[in-house]
C-alpha cells in the first residue's frame, strides 16, 4: 500500500471553485489571477529572446541581468541592498521560493508558527520536512496579528514563523509596530522569518510596504519570497525570487537546484529588460486601488458587510447576518445561481473554521467587476 506523506490533503479549493465556475460559465472572482493581459511590449520581448535563441537552461540561481533588476527594485522598495551574486535567487514562482525556504531551515519535530487564515502551500511544506505547524488565529475583524497569542505559541522547539504581508486573504498590511514586536519576540534565538511578500507593490490609501529585511535584528534570519508573476500580470510564467543573507542563500540554493534547477530563460531576459523602468511596478498600487474602489462601491449596494482591504487584490466579505449556511455551501450556491465564484475562507484554516466569510479577487477588467456586482446584489436579495 502506498504511504501518503500528506494524508489530509485534498484537491485545492482554488481548483474546485475554478472548475465549478467554468462548469456554470460564472465570473471567476475566486482564483487569484489577473483577468487581463500583460503589456504587449513584454510579450514582444519574450518573442524576441526566443527568436534570438535564448531557449536553453538559465543559470540555476537566475539570469544575472534579472537578479540585478530585482536588486534595484528591492533597494528602491526597502532601502536595503542585497548582493546580486550571493543573496538573490530566481525561482519558479513564489511557491517554490517558499517551499525551498522552509526546507532550508525546518527539520523533523521543529515547530513553525502559522498565522491563520493562511495560504494553503505553507503547511504541506512544513509537514513534508517533518516539521510541526503551530497555528495562531489572526483577529477575525481586520486580520491583524494578536501578539500575545503569538508570544504564547513560541516554544523551545520554534524554528520559524511564516508571515504574509500584504495578507492573503485578509488584506492586512503590517505596521512598524508589528515588526518591532516580532523582533522582541525572536530576540537572539535561532528563529527564522519566512516572509511571503508577493503583493509588495499592491497597497492602498498611501500605505507603505515594510519588510523584516528592513529591521537590522531580523534581516540576518529572513527569507523574503516575492513574485514577478503577480507584479506584472503573468502568473502563468511562474517567475519568483528569494532574497536572503549569504548564509541562508547558500542553503537555499543547495535545495533549489534539485527542485527546478532553473527557471524559463526567455521570460527572465524579457522581465529584466522590462524592469529597467521602475514606474512599471511602483504605480501598481494606484492601478489596483482604482479597481478596489470600484468593487467596494458596488459592494455597498449588496447586503454583505466588509472592511476595505489594505493591500493585495483580494476583498473579504461577511454574510453571517444573512445566512447560517456553511461558507463552502454558500460559495457553491452563489456560483451556480448568481454565476459569481468566490473562495470560502474556511479553507484557509487547518480546522476549516467557518467565520461566514468569502474572498473575492478584484484583479479583473472593470466591466467584469460591474457585472459581478450586479449579480451579487440580486443574490443578496435572495439570501435576505
Number of folding domains?
Answer: 2
> Could you say which structural class the secondary elements and strand pairing correspond to?
alpha/beta
Shape: globular
Tell me the fraction of residues in β-strands, as a range. Answer: 5-15%
- At the fourth CATH level, what is the homologous superfamily of the largest domain? Type I PLP-dependent aspartate aminotransferase-like (Major domain)
| Biggest β-sheet strands, sense, barrel | 7 strands, mixed
Helix-strand topology string:
HEHHEHEHEHEHEHEHEHHHHEHEEEH
Total number of strands: 12
Quick one: CATH class of the largest domain? Alpha Beta
Number of helices: 15
Q: Give the low-confidence spans.
A: none
Q: What is the gyration radius calculated from CA atoms? A: 21 Å
What's the architecture of the largest domain, going by CATH?
Answer: 3-Layer(aba) Sandwich
Helix fraction, binned, reads 40-55%
Report, as a whole number of angstroms, the end-to-end distance. Answer: 50 Å
- Main sheet: which strands, in order across? 2-8-7-6-5-3-4
Keywords: Aminotransferase, Pyridoxal phosphate, Transferase
GO molecular function: kynurenine-oxoglutarate transaminase activity; pyridoxal phosphate binding
Domain Aminotransferase class I/classII large: 27-375
Protein name: Aminotransferase
